[in-house]
Specification:
Distance between the termini: 31 Å
Number of domains: 1
Number of strands: 5
CATH topology: Beta-Lactamase
Order of helices and strands: EEHHHEEEHHH
CATH superfamily: PAS domain
Helix content: 40-55%
Length: 187
């Protein structure tokens, strides 16, 4: 799978709309709502059956996806600020949260649903330079080095990753209500 060449064109998401996608336990897309199809620039047929990494922007450090997969594979939620890549090379920023579906008989994860909304500008302004720094560290020392740096940064700030993201996106307000409503609708 080849990714498009990133451009400097930003797609500004409609703050009143949401993106939903569902993948199997390995991250293969099984469903994407109309807004996901529209914003990504891919047809529904191009998305279904492809790894969700089809929209992964190279400006995203690998450590963020490692943290996300570590959490969601344990059926734990995580909220993250993510820069995604559209088919034409444009980019868009989202706040994403996950809802794993667990098989009631085997207790194994069988799918993940991701809910996304436009990221607030202050979150983008904070995370973009941090992500740049983490990518530089990954180039020199790998994901382990960037994870160590991120842990140290959070420790210096006296916070956890979850609290840091909550503070950036104002999780106590509209985002918390939005994600809660989306989970009810898609459960």
């Amino acid at each position: 799978m080849t990714h498009p060449e990133p451009t400097t064109n930003e797609i500004k998401l409609n703050p009143k709309r949401y993106i939903v996608s569902k993948t199997d336990e390995k991250g293969i897309i099984e469903y994407g709502n109309d807004y996901f199809v529209e914003i990504s620039g891919y047809t529904e047929a191009e998305l279904i059956g492809k790894p969700h990494s089809i929209v992964r922007h190279p400006d995203m450090p690998k450590v963020v996806f490692k943290m996300m997969w570590d959490r969601i594979n344990r059926a734990q939620n995580i909220m993250a600020v993510v820069k995604n890549l559209a088919k034409d090379g444009s980019y868009y920023w989202v706040v994403t949260e996950f809802e794993p579906k667990v098989d009631p008989i085997t207790n194994e994860i069988i799918s993940h649903t991701a809910f996304r909304k436009a990221a607030p500008q202050n979150a983008i302004d904070t995370m973009a330079p941090l992500y740049q720094k983490l990518i530089e560290i990954e180039k020199e020392g790998g994901v382990e080095a960037s994870e160590k740096y991120l842990r140290g940064l959070l420790e210096d700030k006296g916070t956890t990753y979850d609290a840091y993201i909550d503070d950036l996106v104002g999780n106590h307000g509209i985002f918390k209500m939005f994600f809660s409503l989306m989970k009810k609708l898609f459960s």
